[in-house]
Design brief:
The protein has helices at 3-17, 28-38, 44-56, 63-103, 107-135, 138-154, 160-175. By secondary structure, it is mainly α. The chain has a domain at 3-104.
Length: 179
């Protein structure tokens, strides 16, 4: 791979990591925009598959950056993207943690920390929407996604149950030739 790809991985994921308020899942729309729309490293269905793998595999949500890096530039790309996603946000978290400890009683700090909650939730909701539309699973896929989200939100059922039922339903629809 040419050096430019590794530089672009560092710039892309290093910048995105600083926006990850609420964790790596909060920046999925921006990762999608960068790697699909701007850099054209992959198409939307490939991105959706990589996102699904990252979500179902055990481990941290930051795994999406690793898998994208691997898809783009193999094992070296995986390492570069992972470190680019982890190091800037870790340094920022360290600095913010020290600042919070020092100025936690200040009114502005309290307001800012409260304001970050809806921002993080909005970013995570946008991530779900981007992943849903990137998968392009058709009308049945959208309906199953909506039903899974609704059941997960409205009930106390373990989220794995509606996910398994939704997966089974889509497989049956696909086997019947309707998807």
């Amino acid at each position: 791979m040419e050096r430019g790809v590794f530089t672009q991985l560092v710039v892309t994921f290093g910048t995105i990591s600083l926006l990850a308020i609420g964790g790596a899942n909060a920046v999925v729309p921006e990762i999608h925009r960068q790697v699909v729309d701007l850099l054209a490293w992959m198409d939307a269905p490939t991105f959706a598959r990589l996102f699904a793998i990252a979500q179902t595999a055990p481990g941290p949500n930051v795994m999406l950056a690793s898998i994208v890096g691997w898809q783009v530039a193999g094992i070296p790309g995986l390492l570069v993207a992972t470190f680019a996603m982890l190091i800037p946000s870790s340094l920022l978290a360290l600095a913010c943690g020290r600042g919070l400890r020092r100025w936690s009683d200040h009114g502005v700090v309290k307001v800012v920390t409260l304001a970050l909650v809806p921002i993080a939730l909005g970013l995570m909701l946008a991530s779900g929407a981007v992943a849903t539309f990137a998968a392009d699973a058709g009308l049945f896929g959208y309906a199953i996604t909506a039903a899974t989200a609704l059941v997960t939100y409205r009930s106390k059922v373990n989220p794995l149950v509606p996910m398994a039922v939704g997966t089974l339903a889509y497989v049956l629809v696909w086997l019947a030739g309707l998807a």
